[in-house]
Specification:
The structure is a single chain. This protein is mainly alpha-helical. It is built from 14 helices and 5 strands. It binds adenosine-5'-tetraphosphate. Adenosine-5'-tetraphosphate (AQP) binds next to helix 2. Adenosine-5'-tetraphosphate binds next to helix 2.
Length: 376
């Protein structure tokens, strides 16, 4: 295919992937009202594939917010894109974790990503610290990022409140390292949850500034691929589900562990007694049904809630069962991967090798443009 025609096909594919197809089914196969990404499988190593990059922090146990907000998307994206998925352990340093805990968290996270369906034959899965070019490009991007832009980042303000005894410079410059993570692989599309919108906008601005300052053809300006579940709320119903907020349903939790959490979770406050009618749309538990239950089940639950013919416990039980049908197989695959540590090592080593090659190609161009040693 001629280069121009190939580029046009790629652009058309980005537009198709970024569009919404309401007719498809949700994660557990049921008809869903949530936004879904259209997928048209391509040959595995199509050179024309548009590149994408996304990362996840090894800061605790994966939860269903990470799964619905990021991993479900990744599994779809690997069919469409030349996908790079990264365990961002350098970002996790901003929380000053115990070294052994961090090492273990990296492995567990990689296991979770693979068990959720990311296929190392299709996507490149790697650990950020195995590609030193991330830190190198972060410094370049740091020198292009106005302090005022970083001052506006709401995540820094949130994290500073969460860890008042450890407000370090890494926490402040976190979005710059994230800009480098993205730019290094020159992706044309980046999937984000709502919590990352502001950081991606900053990354785009910094990339524009680099291109304007040093010449416009090093980095494409990545488009956003909206997540299927941009903001999954925590069990408290007050803030987004977060590893560090103790409001999560863990992806690897057993059915019994999940039930313990669901049992005590808040529902519509109007339903004090079983005979009190409620409003499903204001109930956090009902919002989870949106991801795990069928249209028919949701209609039945909504009617039962409004007419007070169905109690919150029954509603939670159905949710627990439906969640388990998604989480159970993931737990089994994770257990299998844990039993083969050598296989995980090989996957991560191969991923890192490929990521380093791509990253070095970028850095050769960058060093050349900005006047550092080591350009072409
Ligand atoms: N609640 C959520 N709803 C939808 N998407 C979410 N993501 C995280 N929480 C939700 C998406 O998961 C990906 C990886 O996130 P991360 O772990 O790297 O960082 P995070 O967003 O800061 O996640 P946590 O759980 O809140 O971690 P901590 O508490 O350590 O900061 C991203 O794509 C994110 O959008």
């Amino acid at each position: 295919m001629a280069e121009v025609a190939c580029h046009q096909v790629c652009q058309a594919r980005v537009r198709a992937i970024c569009s919404v197809d309401k007719s498809r089914r949700g994660i557990s196969g049921q008809r869903s009202r949530t936004r879904t990404v259209r997928t048209t499988p391509l040959p595995r190593y199509n050179v024309c594939m548009v590149r994408t990059l996304s990362g996840i922090q090894p800061t605790g146990n994966l939860h269903i917010g990470n799964y619905l907000g990021a991993l479900v998307n990744w599994v779809k994206l690997q069919e469409e894109y030349d996908a790079y998925f990264c365990v961002v352990d350098m970002h996790a340093l901003t929380q000053r974790p115990d070294p052994e805990v961090l090492r273990q968290a990296v492995r567990e996270l990689a296991i979770g990503v693979l068990a959720s369906g990311v296929d190392p034959e299709r996507a490149t899965l790697f650990v950020q610290s195995q590609v030193p070019q991330h830190a190198e490009l972060a410094w370049v991007m740091m020198c292009l990022t106005p302090l005022g832009d970083l001052n506006r980042m709401t995540q820094f303000k949130d994290k500073s409140t969460q860890q008042p005894d450890n407000i370090n410079a890494g926490l402040f410059t976190y979005p710059v390292l994230q800009t480098a993570d993205i730019a290094l692989y020159r992706p044309e599309a980046v999937p984000v949850g709502e919590d990352q919108d502001q950081h991606l906008e900053l990354a785009r601005e910094t990339i524009r500034r680099f291109n304007f300052t040093y010449g416009g053809d090093v980095f494409p300006e990545p488009k956003t691929v909206k997540s299927l579940a941009p903001r999954v709320m925590g069990l408290d119903g007050e803030s987004k589900m977060s590893k560090s907020k103790n409001n999560e349903i863990g992806l690897f939790e057993t059915e019994a562990e999940t039930w313990k959490k669901l049992k005590g979770a808040k529902t519509d406050p109007a339903r004090e007694r079983r005979s009190d009618p409620g409003t499903p749309e204001v109930c956090n538990i009902y919002s989870y049904h949106g991801f795990f239950s069928t249209d028919e089940q949701r209609a039945e639950l909504a009617e039962g809630c409004r007419k007070a013919t169905l109690g919150c416990v029954d509603c939670k039980k159905m949710l627990g069962t439906n969640m388990e049908s998604v989480k159970g197989p993931i737990r089994e695959r994770a257990a299998d991967l844990r039993s083969k540590p050598g296989e995980l090592d090989q996957i991560l080593a191969a991923g890192a090798e490929k990521a380093r090659r791509t990253a070095e190609e970028t850095m050769v161009m960058v060093r050349d443009r900005i006047g550092l040693a080591g350009g072409k």
